[in-house]
Amino acid sequence: MKISVGKFRGFMKISNDLGQFQMLALDQRNSLKKMIKEQKGNFEDEDLVNVKRAILSTLSDKVTAVLIDGEYGFPSNLKYIFHNTGIILSAEKSGYITDEESTSDRLSELYRSDVATFAKKKGIDAVKLLIYWSDDSSQKTKSHQMKLVEEMGEICKKEDILYILEILTYGTESHKEKAILKAMKTFSDEKYAVDMFKVEPIVRNSGFNLKRDDVYEFSNGKPWVILSGGMDVEEFKDILKWNCQIGASGFLAGRVIWKGAPKYIETPELMDLHLKSTGVYNLELLKINSSEATPFFKTPYFNGIENVEVLP
Predict the structure, then answer these.
(1) pLDDT value at position 207?
(2) Which option is the CATH number for 2-311: 3.20.20.70, 3.40.50.2300, 3.30.365.10, 3.40.20.10?
(3) 225 to 100, 118, 254: CA distances (angstroms)
(4) pTM listed for this prediction
């Protein structure tokens, strides 16, 4: 397969020596505000900056890449990211807006219209866009989300920067796994120019038996990683292991690793101690359980590094 220099470098920068992804998500905003408010009764922007800074300082040297937002602490927080760690910038605003005609539908928005160009100019390794997706939403909502994904793909292709699409499904809880795969199938079409997917984990159950590499039929052979959705580490580690056994290339997880930290928002030294002990333990546990992750270059889309042609 053929791939541009920027996108290939992006894959290399955010993966380990084996081509696997062990990535830390730190783009949470609304959920982090809620966690801080539960402790203090209120929150200030500086609280978010301080928590993110502490997490980056302690954990960024132990992951292949960090996912950050451009609203809280950027770019000064770059000083706290380990120099060999890849950097991914989140493109969307936190949360979602609802459509006036269908209030249950969820619409995604960019936090700035030129985010991909901005990221490339600032030397960021990849851009991540989160969209909410439901087969039950209106055609108007689907069209909005599809247009957003496609336009971002076009700009990332023009700027030659790696493009990660995160999909959060809703409205189909009884068939969650099928909804995840179907959504990935939709956006694997080449017109969207997605390079890698970040999706909710596939949970093993008797009614939905997947074998290794089956998911590639839905991702068009492209690499995919899973998110944690704030699970506890003991639950997530087994789910992670299973997903890597069926083809996932690793994880891009946040709260499962560091969600205990905001509890100590008013005592920074205790927050640091928590991250250096429990945070590190959680992260290392996930790394162990993702040891079978498929290297990005061994996915069907790449079919081996020897078959990749990097274009000038």
Answers:
(1) 60
(2) 3.20.20.70
(3) 33, 25, 13
(4) 0.96
